[in-house]
Amino acid sequence: ILPGVGAFDTAMTLIDASGARPALEEAVIERQTDVLGICLGMQLLGRSSDEGELPGLGWIAADTKRLTSGESLRIPHMGWDWVTPTTESRLFGDASDDLRFYFVHSYAVVCDDEADVLATTRHGDNFTCAVAHGNVYGVQFHPEKSHRFGMDLLRRFVGRPR
Questions:
Q1: Half-sphere exposure of 1 (CA within 13 A, CB side)
Q2: Is residue 123 among the annotated active site residues?
Q3: Is 156 helix (H, G, I), strand (E, B) or coil?
Q4: Which residues have a Cβ under 8 Å from the Cβ of 73 and sit 6 or more positions away?
Q5: pLDDT tens for each residue of 58-112
Q6: Given this model, what pLDDT does residue 161 score?
């Protein structure tokens, strides 16, 4: 947990300086322990970010790009927004409900492989807001601030029914 971290290079520097990277690699890559990156945590799962110069964890073939703003769009993208699953996944269940989650971010992950995209949302253009590759999952929104939608997602991630 990296309290107060909101920038890609700062987070990667803290992970490396703490000595946590070898333990994370061993757990996630070697033992295949499920991991869920939230907001900046999702961005760290990829190779790089427009926000910094350091390499990311590289667990998903993706790069993080700055959101583009239009005339009426505010950056950062902040507030509640609709999420559209693109494939069936454990994070969203059957997705029969309209899904709304709370966002606060200025960057979005762009995956090399569309199969890694679990869901999108729209802020001007559509962007990826949830990813998965094997045991590595990420969400751009904040499930912990997203009431029942977020609690349901977190329950499904840890494998506990409602």
A1: 1
A2: no
A3: helix
A4: 123, 124
A5: 999 999 999 987 667 888 999 999 999 999 899 998 766 689 999 999 999 999 9
A6: 57
25 is catalytic: no
Q: Which of 26, 53, 144, 147 is catalytic?
A: 144
Identified catalytic residue from 39, 105, 111, 123: 39
Other CB atoms within 10 A of residue 14 CB:
14
With the C-alpha atoms ordered 66, 71, 75, 77, is the resulting torsion angle positive or negative? negative
129 is catalytic: no
The answer, yes or no, to whether the previous bond of 76 is cis (omega within 30 of 0) is yes
The confidence score (pLDDT) of residue 68 equals 84
User: What is the structure's pLDDT at 1?
Assistant: 40
Determine how β-strand 136-139 pairs with β-strand 117-123: unpaired
What letter represents residue 115's amino acid? A
pTM of the model: 0.91
State whether the Cα torsion 62-45-31-18 is positive or negative: positive
3-state secondary structure of 98: coil
Q: What one-letter code names the amino acid at 7?
A: A
